[in-house]
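# nightly structure sweep
# worker-07 picked up a monomer target from the shared queue
# config: single-sequence mode, recycle default, output format = structure tokens
# input follows
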Amino acid sequence: MPICLNPLALFRLSCVILSVLAGTVHRQDPLIVKTPIDTSEFLFSGNSDLLAGAFIVTSLPGVAGLASFLDRNPGVTVTHLFLSDFDDRELQTKLVGIPLDGETMYGHRMILHDLMNHVSPTLEVLSYSLYHWNWTIHFGQVMQAGFKNHIPRLFDHEFPRLRQLTLQDVDIWEDDDCEQIDPDLPDCIFPSLPSVSHLHLVSKWAYDKKLPTLTSLKESLPALTHLRLTATPLTTEMWPKTAEDGSEHYYIPSNLTVLYNPSFYPLLGDSGEMMCGTPGVMYDDMMERLGALTPDHHMRLIWPLEENYKRYGSTYGIYPVGRAIRDFRSRLFGEGEGDWSVTEVRPWTEPMGDQWWLKTVSED
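# output follows
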């Protein structure tokens, strides 16, 4: 009788075969059982300067390799985990634009589920970024065309020790979590994560019109003290409100520090060409209003970096993988606040025309 294997089993089997053929064993962490397996697809204490318990993966095959590695070494405890579907070189060369097939996407979802089974009980820091457009284009209407089961899911696991969480275009909510019964309530309720004190959400498309209010976030994440939003819409409390005397205020909980990183100038494309239209005027006006309020409130602005725009373009430059890794390592080695650090750059105070994006266009 022939033996039938499902696509996931075949995918995992191919990883095992390649690992056995490679037979590569790097310098081992003391807790690691010496099992022949190729560890070149990810970084950890056995092949880099990372601390024990920390792993960095920047490819889909790397995620599969790490899952296989942990299957064979159940004594390894993972406390800090960085995951990305692409590395820095691929972002710069735009290889991220090559379509992913459904089998690859579904395989990643299932492998991620197995990986989280191993790491979720001990994980303290998680940074997970998806750059490929396939993951985000399937949100919404395309999900109804049979792609729902291709989208990676994190929160069918519990994370009792998770303190710091960074998500970039990772689908957070199941359909049932986003039923808008009352128009005054948020569209979606964030998963309950009782230990998370630092949250960073990055989105080009995934979280539009879905962000909970800050009050709702605090209910789901009672330990939350620092929230960074990058390229997302503003929450209700972050919109400036005009009082009767003409002054502007916003209403952020006193025990929460909010860092807002706006998108690139909306009329600046990847080619550096400046288009015409009112969104640019609205963008400048909103940033000026927010900037004027930040010194006296629990909100800070983080400005998009010119160097990231020139290297990656507006689509992938808002929080590229190289920057995300530097932030991850900064927190790991206690060298700074990582995602939640604030620079003193205040471009909204400069005379109109002196902002770097306008200078960049005028020089081209």
